[in-house]
Every structure is written in C-alpha cells, then in structure tokens.
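Fold tokens
===========
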Amino acid sequence: MANEPHIRSSGREVVGEKGSGCWRCGYSRVGIGQGTPCPECGSPAIRPVDAEPDESVWEEPTTSDALSGRVPDDAVTYARWLDARVAERDVGRSWSMTGLIALGAGPFAVVGAFAGAIWGGGQGFFGAIVLVVFGPIVEEVCKVALATYVVERKPYLFLSRTQILICAGAAGLVFSVIENLLYLHVYVRLPSAELVLWRWTVCVALHVGCSVLAGMGLASAWRDGMRDKRRPDLVPATRWLVGAIVLHGAYNALAIMLERGGVLF
C-alpha cells in the first residue's frame, strides 16, 4: 500500500542538481528524479520528516491499522512532520512572524473592507444589507485570515495561544485606528467631540473585541491540534468567527437606526 501512487500527487518531477546527495548515504542524486529512490541505498529522495504530509498515503482518510498494518518507521505522517518542525523552530522567528501578522492583518482587512464597499456601495436597503451582513463578514474574516493560514498550514510557527490572540487583537486595533482616521479626517468634516470620543472608545472596543472573539476559537483549534499532533480542526473555530460577525453586524444595525434618528456615527 505504501508504494501505491498517491491520489493527490502533484505529478511534479524535480531532477537533482549539482551538489545534491542522498540524505542517508550521500550518494550523488544528480540527474535522478525527485520521486526516484536512491539507487545506492533505496532511501526516498526526501527525508520523511521533510516531505509534505498531505502527499503521504499514510494520511489518507481511509488508512487504518486494520487495513494497512503498522505505520513504517520512515513513513511520512502529520505527527512526525509536526514533531520535526517543532524541534527546529526558532523563538525569534516565531515572534517576528507574530509581529508581522499583528501589524499586517489590520491593513489587509481595510483593503478587504474597501473592496466590499466598492462592490456593494450605495444607499437604501441594499446598502444597509451590505453594512449589516456583508461588511462584518469581510472585515472579521480578513482580520484573522493571516493567523488562520498559519494555524492551518504552519502551526509550528506559533509557540502559544497568546500569540494568536495578540495577532487577532492587534488586527482589530490597527483596523479601528485606520478606520477612525478615515472617518474623522476624510469622511466627516468637522466631527463633533462626541463623535470623536465614540469612535476612539466604542468603535475601537468593538473591533478589538470581535477580533479577539474570533481569535479565541482559532487559538483553541491550534491548541487541540498541537496537543493531539493532528491537523487543526477549524470547524469549531468557525462558530467563534460567526459570533464575532453577528456582534459586529448587530452594532452596525444599531448605528444605522440611530443615524436615521439623527445621531451621526
């Protein structure tokens, strides 16, 4: 079974270049295809722990001990791949990545919000639907999109749940700062002191709170995946994200009703 072609194989065939050698015996692999075992010792071209677990037959959903027997010691599995990545991870790199996501997620969400506004801009009923439904969906998804990618594809880059919550909270904070600067210096001419106070308190708390709420589900998915050495299950995390979207949409609906009553937000 281990020698069967993989159903998700990329089909790419990379030929070894000058200087490349077998990871086990050192035999030159110049001119040997990536999918071809070493002609000297029979080892696979890539160390099992360096291969993508998505392309391993031992990660197929139908694989079981009853059908395939015990997993060979050199077989590629998600747990072994994760152990190898965790052993090699760097604390400085992890926190640098956290900082980049924390600073970049907010502007990324602003771009997403602009794209949504262009697509669904306007007044009237459809404009209100965009503000209450589509706007919160785009903003909340974009604010945690980068952290979600890391949790799903490279979970070993995070050291703790705290880093995920920092990424989520900072995304909401940076997003709200950019949004407030646009509202108070571009969209609204001569904003009142009450509006300025509202935007720098309630709106900031809303964006940070919603982002942290979505981040809590993501952090729990990461913790469970790292503990059980399996791919993070993002389905439970989606419920937290939906909660953040509903909270954000409810605030927008309240703001629209108050604005139509003469209160500017």
Summary: The longest helix spans residues 193-228. The helical segments are 65-68, 78-88, 91-120, 124-143, 145-153, 161-187, 193-228, 235-260. The two ends are 63 Å apart (CA to CA).
